[in-house]
Specification:
It contains six helices and no strands. With 139 residues, the chain is an all-alpha fold.
Amino acid sequence: MELNWIAIIIITIVSFFAGAAWHGSFFFGKLWMKIHHGDKKFSDEEMKKAMEGIWRIMLLEFIATLLMIMTLDFLMQLLPEFSGMHIAFMIWIGFVLPTMASTVIWGNDPKKWMFAKVAISSSFRLLSLVAAGYVLSIW
């Protein structure tokens, strides 16, 4: 079994930047910041401090995304009777959504923001996985 490495890497890169747009100012950035920091506005110095070491977080996110896309491609080859989109949805509903919900529930998030946080993060993963399943199936 050979994974489609070119497609996996391209999809990972696109998904990584789409996630930045999703959680950034293009889509849900203001709400995301409100969930995590309330109505507090960061000074330039606070923002600079918050961004220290961000490359580590970004690297881990990139690796996590790469692993998800690799697993999706692997499962698509193991289960050719199912579409890539179907397998992606099953990964999301069976693993991603419960894991995200559990992490938020047991994390230190304010209760009033739990649903929004799970909805924002898990909906992005759903869309990115289903899109990846589609692209891998036609590549």
